[in-house]
Design a protein that fits this description.
- The structure holds two protein chains of two kinds.
- By secondary structure, chain A is of the alpha+beta class.
- Helix content of chain A is 31%, strand content 24%.
- Chain A has 15 helices and 22 strands.
- In chain A, the strands form six sheets. A five-stranded mixed beta sheet of chain A has the order 3-22-21-18-17. Chain A has a four-stranded antiparallel beta sheet with strand order 5-4-19-20. Chain A has a four-stranded parallel beta sheet with strand order 7-6-11-12.
- The longest helix of chain A is centred in the first third of the chain and has 25 residues.
- Chain A is globular and about 65 Å long.
- The two termini of chain A are 44 Å apart.
- Chain B is mainly α.
- Chain B contains 15 helices and no strands.
- In chain B, helix 1 runs antiparallel to helix 7, helix 5 packs antiparallel against helix 6 and helix 6 runs antiparallel to helix 7.
- Chain B is globular, with a radius of gyration of 19 Å.
- The chains are: A alpha+beta, B mainly alpha.
- Chains A and B meet through helix 2, helix 9, strand 7 and strand 9 of A and helix 1, helix 5 and helix 6 of B.
């Protein structure tokens, strides 16, 4: 069996010295007592519980609220490193929006033969209701999360695009709050780029995408599936921070040709709806008729330009894992430039040769469901038992089109504070991107997710992952 | 603000008020049971009755053992009126309306719930009772303090207060009614000097024993106690006080929103009429009838507020 190569550690070189970005932090760290730091870590947990920063677990017997474990060792990225990464993110996000506009209009990219038609036409994420319609400001993905992994000093890859309703930004913000409360001295000594303006930027960005007919200050509301949704805390948090109403489907109704919310003083029209409800549930008249979470008729008003929906319905067509493998072509097609951020090598199991390779090398690969998310339905070859491998082999043969495969990357590590000191663990990074008609804002850093189990590569919170505060240093 | 949010806040503060009242009631019952000397089961039966939970309780238990009563009222999850259940509900509503609350109010509520939940994982023993009641009092005060100290005086705050005072008025009226019934089966007692301990139960159930003595040194005529709890606008749990507040909170909404709703007329009428005729007249025409009518109108006002401000639709 082939083991993945030794992972790159972002903090320490193999000789034990710190990489430049961690220099100041290490100087501080070496003066700390382990017991004090451990106490601080407990404080952080208590703080998260008190403030209710929890997520709900699906399928648990009693509706259970859990904390996402937080690790107090920050993940630090140098200013120059970040500049390069963020240029790549911006390029990619522009391409995603251009792709969406094209896919729902002239489909030039298909005519040019760069993306197969079947991938679009047969994709359940493609919404015919969006054909020929251009959202206000021509923005499709108002909020995007680009998942990055790192394998070396200068090697960042895009692992996944999240263009539907990416979550996690509230953890990014609360992690920073917590760190500043616990270690104020660190933030006076080290110049870390702030992330706290995200909610204000989000508001500005959404306002800039208000429908043309909107006069005055746009009314913004956040649509949540409700208190039992796993990301409910975040929905409430963002509404609160933006000064927007947090609404549920049954608060909304169509009144006088507008989507309006039921207030204590009557129905009040909404201009921009930041929805955290999936496409399928948005409008029972257009999509799932059994949905209680959406607003009957909202799609008609949307198409009539009476309301902005963020993200636009149908953006799922660009972050599908099958589309992912075409992203290098997509970036080049719309920007005329080579991608600044590479994709991870991907085998599309729908292609017979790729399938053969994947079956022959299953033990070395990570196999993912094309439509899966959250780390469910995924096989990590090197960590899988013989029985698991066999089970997946059958699935692959039965429905090859349902899977893609990637090499098992040696994801970079950042140490966590373990029982007896620093211990390296694999991480990824989700920067958050806001798209307005005239600008793209990228959070410096984002949410670092960390696999807390030694050797594990799965960072998803639903699978036992934790988070870290992510610092981008001022130059 | 959203109608649903107004409803969530309104009920959140009803639940909080109710759980605090329940703690008070248990405390008074316990105290009585300790001081009466003879079988304490009678006292506990009276506590359950006052809480309006007699049939629910008797469906579960065939005796009034203190242990059973205390655990039923404090931590039984199958009893939606137990302190634990009500705090779950209050905290659920606080999460639902998180955007309308300050961080201080949310955290105070969340901490209240976390502490209670932790303490209630095991049965409550008699020896834990005083400490537990003290904790509930203190945590309630924290939430109240956070509300007063951190919330803008907008519609949100006024809906919170409406919930509090409607619940409180109902509670005081109910205690008076049940106790009056239990302790004074015959109207011939009215006006006579009575068993002080009995009246003290009533006063204790609304934490009024000190306040009453402060204002009425030496006098414990039943009519004086009733007058205090119904008409004394200085006592924060009296019916009169609650209606001063309800009147004021509704007046704020009228001014802020620029329109009147049927709830305003109802509250005005209640506010003006509670003690207009004087306590002697109330006793003459029947305290029980007065209280029954009051509770019905109080409930009607709550229903009007829910409808007028579109809590549900």
């Amino acid at each position: 069996m082939e083991l993945p190569p030794i992972a790159f550690d972002e903090m320490l070189r193999t000789d034990g010295s710190a990489h430049p970005a961690y220099g100041d932090y290490m100087a501080w760290f070496e003066g700390q007592e382990l017991t004090r730091l451990r106490r601080k870590a407990e404080e952080a947990d208590a703080n998260f519980r008190r403030t209710g920063i929890t997520f709900n677990v699906y399928g648990a017997e009693e509706a259970e609220e859990r904390l996402i474990p937080f690790d107090i060792i920050p993940r630090i990225i140098g200013g120059q490193e970040w500049k390069k990464v963020s240029r790549g993110i911006e390029q990619r996000v522009r391409a995603l929006n251009a792709f969406l506009h094209d896919v729902y209009h002239r489909q030039e990219i298909i005519r040019a033969g760069r993306v197969p038609e079947s991938l679009i036409a047969k994709n359940s994420a493609f919404l015919p209701a969006m054909i020929g319609f251009t959202p206000p400001g021509r923005v499709y993905t108002h909020i995007v999360g680009i998942d990055l992994v790192r394998t070396g000093p200068d090697e960042f890859f895009v692992l996944e695009d999240n263009a539907r309703t990416p979550s996690g930004v509230s953890y990014m913000l609360e992690n920073r709050e917590t760190m500043m409360n616990m270690f104020p001295e660190l933030f006076s000594a080290i110049r870390v780029r702030e992330v706290g303006s995200y909610p204000a930027n989000l508001r500005r960005s959404l306002e800039a995408c208000a429908p043309d007919g909107c006069s005055g200050k746009p009314v913004i509301a956040v649509l949540t599936p409700g208190i039992f949704n796993s990301a409910y805390f975040e929905h409430a948090f963002l509404a609160d921070q933006m000064g927007a109403e947090l609404v549920e489907g049954h608060d909304l109704r169509i009144v006088d040709g507008r989507v309006a919310m039921r207030t204590t003083q009557g129905f009040k029209p909404i201009d921009v709806l930041y929805r955290r409800v999936d496409d399928d549930y948005l409008d029972p008249m257009t999509f799932r008729p059994d949905s209680q979470l959406g607003v009957p008729g909202i799609m008609d008003l949307y198409r009539a330009g009476k309301i902005t929906i963020a993200n636009a319905p149908g953006t799922g067509i660009c972050d599908d894992k099958a589309i992912y493998s075409y992203m290098p072509e997509i970036v080049e097609f719309y920007t005329g430039e080579k991608p600044l951020l590479p994709n991870v090598q991907t085998w599309r199991c729908a292609e017979p040769e790729a399938l053969k390779y994947v079956l022959d090398h299953l033990k070395e690969l990570v196999v993912k469901e094309v439509h899966g998310s959250g780390g469910y339905g995924m096989l990590v070859g090197p960590a899988a038992s013989r029985a698991e491998l066999e089970a997946f082999r059958k699935k692959l043969k039965a429905r090859p089109g349902n899977y893609i495969a990637q090499p098992t990357l040696a994801l970079s590590t950042v140490p966590i504070l373990g029982k007896s000191g620093l211990a390296p663990r694999h991480v990824d990074l989700r920067p958050f991107v806001l798209v307005a008609p005239d600008r793209i804002d990228i959070t410096p850093g984002g949410l670092t997710r960390v696999a807390l189990k030694k050797g594990s590569l799965v960072v998803n919170s639903s699978q036992g992952g934790g988070t870290k505060d992510s610092w981008v240093l001022e130059d | 603000m959203l109608g649903r949010t107004a409803g969530g806040i309104f009920w959140m503060f009803r639940y909080l008020e109710r759980s605090e009242n329940m703690a008070r009631l248990i405390e008074a019952g316990h105290r009585m049971a300790l001081t009466r000397g003879m079988g304490s089961d009678e006292e506990w039966r009276s506590v359950v009755m006052t809480a309006g939970l007699r049939s629910a309780y008797e469906a579960r238990f065939d005796n009034y053992e203190p242990q059973n009563v205390v655990n039923f009222l404090m931590r039984d999850k199958t009893n939606p009126a137990s302190i634990l259940s009500m705090l779950e509900s209050a905290r659920h509503n606080a999460r639902m309306t998180r955007v309308a609350l300050t961080r201080e109010v949310w955290e105070a509520t969340n901490i209240f719930w976390m502490r209670i939940k932790e303490r209630m994982t095991r049965p409550v023993r008699e020896t834990d009772l005083p400490g537990l009641i003290a904790m509930i009092r203190q945590q309630s005060a924290q939430v109240r303090g956070a509300l007063h100290g951190s919330m803008l005086r907008l519609d949100i705050y006024n809906f919170a207060r409406l919930g509090t005072f409607l619940e409180r008025a109902d509670n005081t009226a109910r205690i008076l009614d049940v106790k009056y019934y239990v302790l004074l089966p015959s109207l011939s007692f009215v006006g006579a000097a009575l068993d002080n301990v009995q009246w003290e139960t009533i006063l204790r159930s609304v934490s009024a024993e000190h306040a009453f003595r402060w204002l009425n040194a030496g006098g414990t005529r039943p009519v004086g106690v009733a007058e205090f709890l119904i008409c004394d606008g200085r006592f924060p749990r009296s019916l009169s006080f609650c209606y001063q507040k309800l009147h004021g909170n509704l007046a704020y909404l009228e001014k802020d929103y620029g329109f009147r709703v049927p709830a305003h007329d109802l509250a005005d009428e209640m506010h003006g009429s509670i003690c207009k005729q004087g306590i002697e007249t109330i006793f003459e025409s029947g305290l029980h009838e007065f209280l029954t009518d009051f509770m019905a109108r109080n409930a009607r006002l709550a229903a009007e507020i829910e409808r007028n401000y579109r809590f549900y639709g």
